[in-house]
Task: structure prediction
Amino acid sequence: MMQSLQRQMIETELADIVGREYVLTDEADRMIYGVDYFWLPRMLVDRGQIPPLPDMVVLPETVEQVAAIVRLANVYRIPLIPWGGGSGSQGGIMPVYGGVTLDLKRLNRIVNINVQAQTVIAQAGLNGYELECELNRNGLTLPHYPASVHSATLGGYLACRGSGVLSTKYGKAEDMVLSIQLVLPNGDIIRTLPVPNHAAGPGVLQLFIGAEGSYGIITEATMRLESLPQERRFRAFLFGTLSKGLEAGRRMMLERLQPTVIRLYDEPSTIKQVKRILGISVEEGAYMIIGFDGWREMVELQERRALAICQELGANDLGSGPGWEWWNQRYNFYFPPYGLDFPWMFGTMDTVCTFDNIENLYWTKKKTLEATYEAWKLQYIAHFSHWYPWGVMVYDRFIIEEPPQDPQKALALHNEIWNLAVRTSITCGGVLNEHHGVGLKLARLMREQHGSTFQVLEGLKCKLDPHNVLNPGKMGFGPTS
Ligand SMILES: Cc1cc2nc3c(=O)[nH]c(=O)nc-3n(C[C@H](O)[C@H](O)[C@H](O)COP(=O)(O)OP(=O)(O)OC[C@H]3O[C@@H](n4cnc5c(N)ncnc54)[C@H](O)[C@@H]3O)c2cc1C
Result:
């Protein structure tokens, strides 16, 4: 935390850069910037405590202002924490060492929509939904549809390597980006090469994608777009077992049928969530939604083959009605009254692995967590929603309905569960996370995940940000020095 004289000097210099009204110092304003969607800061607020807050918040309007703020942070050796929409679930925006939060929401312009190249250049603080509405008016779409589209920003999509609900066909955020403009930790403004696929040495672009503000601040991005599809279809199936559903998904991916979505719910989620949220009465089995889009004839063919695969595996075809029901309600799963919320303790532990490991990973994690935390009546539920030509992601969650009330005891239990969950994923061939990122929540496990490869990430951090001013305490990196 800053001393009051130092605070005043920094506030004056920041006001010089952006104007007095764009430097926030009131506690009520700063409070907002201490909480994202991570359970920890929300639990502290729930228990009447104040989470770590930034000393002040600055809202620049131009990339030059961002660069000047970064240079200032280096002069005073103060932490600088980028803020997009604050919808992250990993505590990535938490100012654990105090400092200045840099809110990017005024960098919200669409610079150019290029219809011929089917690309958009937009600033990083632009809200995802606003971007999508403008693209739709031009017959185009950025096919990244996270459930947080109304609050997340373009920069946040890229900073966390996010996945939208149609990622199975269109890829993750990192697959849609051609180029970025970025402010380095020393204040230099750089632009990566105009295209992502080349042989001009290693891909520098991808070093900054997923770095969650540790290597630089993304200020602008060029993204590839798609035309709005001529035809879109969804269909639902009920499989006798989860295993059969996983096999159907594997075959569809290996046969390259290009489904937009394969969403397979495990049995507990089928009975609880599908019934409760979609109102579809299912008593047993594993519920699956599949979708296709594009040219009608292609969609026809792809869907026909997918149907045959599902039938070969004994699935009950529930038709397109329940499929559309899911599409229309796809975001409701995450918001009141259906989303996970207090007083529960909960966490989404998404991981990804190759097809040969997925079933073992799911069952091992479920049995290990439910057995270890039997006294807390821990529930483990999952669905499988982002598929690749080599494997699949499991969006698995733990829920404890009656956690300890004491914040320290609650946090200790929470961290213990996370350690066991991530270590079990890694042992079974999975990785730390698939699309929510690392943030503060998983920072302590980064060295374990990467082993001696972590020296590559750490070496880059030391070289690019020797004083560790950018988002300290995240990604396994230490405090500002
Ligand atoms: C209800 C709900 C549903 C969600 N569903 C999805 C989903 O379907 N798919 C998905 O991928 N995620 C989902 N998320 C998680 C979250 O919305 C994403 O991680 C999103 O990409 C974060 O964007 P943001 O702009 O809110 O970033 P923030 O939360 O503001 O920041 C996240 C991290 O990125 C850094 N950062 C932000 N902007 C920049 C920048 N311009 N340059 C450098 N670093 C930056 C921050 O410092 C922080 O470390 C969901 C969250 C909620 C609350």
